[in-house]
Amino acid sequence: MKTRYTILLLMFGLIFQIGYAQNSSDAFRFSSYDVLGSARFVALGGAFGAVGGDLSTLNYNPAGLGIFQSSEFAFSPAINYAANDAVYNGSLGSDANSNVNYGMIGMVTTRRLLEGSRANNSGWKAINYGFSLNRTKNFNNSMFIAGESQSSSLANVWRDNANGSIIEDLYPFSEGLAWDTYILDTVPGDPTQYYSGAPIYGGVTQTYWEQSKGYIDELSFAISANYNDKLIVGFSLGIPMLRYERRIEHSEFALGNPADYEFSEFLYKDNLLTEGVGINAKIGFIYVVSPSVRFSGAFHTPTYYSEIVDDYTSSLETIMGDGNDYFSESPIGNMVYNLRTPSRMMLGISTLFYKSGFISLDYEYMDYGTSNLSSSSYSFVNENHDVRADFQATHNLRLGAEWKLDFFTIRGGYNIISSPMNPEVNDIISSAYSWGAGYRIGNTYVDFAYSKRTTDNLFYMYNPDYVNSASITNVTSNYIFTMGYKF
């Protein structure tokens, strides 16, 4: 159970790890997604499967491209704001991060196959083509944790990890740095056993700051076809491009008067840069039951990332109880690996009220336990085994509604993502509400949307066998603006 719980935390990036263990967290981080796209899509909570007629559907249900009756161009810049409150051993820490990005840009063109006197004939009536560049994941976040601990220190984790190894074999990104800066020293008479410089009496004040930034942007090319105004089918090819940067600073300060061989304070820094390009495909349909009811379905293949590259470094600066200070920096670490994310399946239904508006409901199934890591230099056998043991299928719901008032439109939405973890491991549910409005006149339209997602979870600064958890409340807000033109 301990091992499984540890892997859970790794997958959410909740343990202070680098090197190979770092890559196991990528399986979840790069498989998840945000509800991002055009302002209309976000305002409806992403419940667009059976609605269509929006460029965001290229990343969701490409059959929605077939709803367009004319060519269209749209651009959706966005503002993202993420805030975290952390309670650790009774102390509160807060931090926030914001960024501006292009959000989504795309275009669709329409080719009518049956026009004029032939428009009422049965058959394939239109083919639509489209492309978009859409941000599907935003990694921008910042978190600060601070509190006192009477019994825990990261130095003791390094000590236990080092035990059994000679100095030359110490991990150069953590235990090796601790040795270089006198936080670790060998037990007299045994070169493979160590003691740490953590203060024995008085405890320490601990701070943990993590800042991440980056994205997954997906370039999509899609085609859809309309058969007899009853069945619309679509296909899209996606090329996701990921970039993830993370910076961690962990510091500890002795609360009492440390002995000469104990540390007075230290600052450990860890930096990671991940980049990669993948490929996936999506197919979908929309079936028009009647003018007021539509059904939809879509399937997303796994995304295949080939040769994701991790570059990472770390450093440690120490001031000992005798006043001497030391500094050590790691070499540049590098890891190249492959990732296969889970597939996704979706069903949707919408009820339309003539030209006044609609209500739409979507269901999505995604099994995070099917993620798989591989590499020519490392087997990932244990990591993949634990992914399958601890992760499960998610059942996600999206609900959206839109109502038109002449040239003005109002929208609202709600979505909930069930826990990707087995119940015996953890239960994390994330939910979001959204609203928006649009103004359309002639061939031009302007839309706005706001969404707010709240997620509560537990976070461990390092190995949970040594440290208490911090309770984290994350609130992420997105402001989306869309400008579009029909031609």
Q: What is the subunit arrangement here?
A: single chain
CATH class: Mainly Beta
Helix content: 10-25%
**Rg measurement, Å:** 26 Å
| Largest beta sheet: strand ordering | 1-2-3-7-8-9-10-14-15-17-18-19-20-21
Query: What is the makeup of the main sheet?
Result: 14 strands, antiparallel, barrel
Outline:
The protein is mainly beta.
Structure description:
There is one protein chain. This protein has one domain (2-153, 198-486): Beta Barrel (Porin), CATH 2.40.160. Mean pLDDT is 91; it is low at 1-23. The longest helix has 10 residues, at 2-11. It starts with a helix and ends with a strand. It is mainly β. Strands 1-2-3-7-8-9-10-14-15-17-18-19-20-21 form a 14-stranded antiparallel barrel. Helix 1 (2-11) packs across helix 2 (20-29) and helix 1 (2-11) packs across helix 6. A hairpin with a 2-residue loop joins strand 1 (72-88) and strand 2. The chain has helices at residues 2-11, 20-29, 39-43, 154-162, 175-180, 381-390; strands spanning 72-88, 91-112, 124-138, 141-149, 184-187, 190-196, 204-227, 231-254, 263-290, 293-300, 304-320, 325-329, 333-340, 344-353, 357-367, 372-374, 393-405, 408-417, 430-441, 444-459, 470-486. The chain is built from 6 helices and 21 strands.
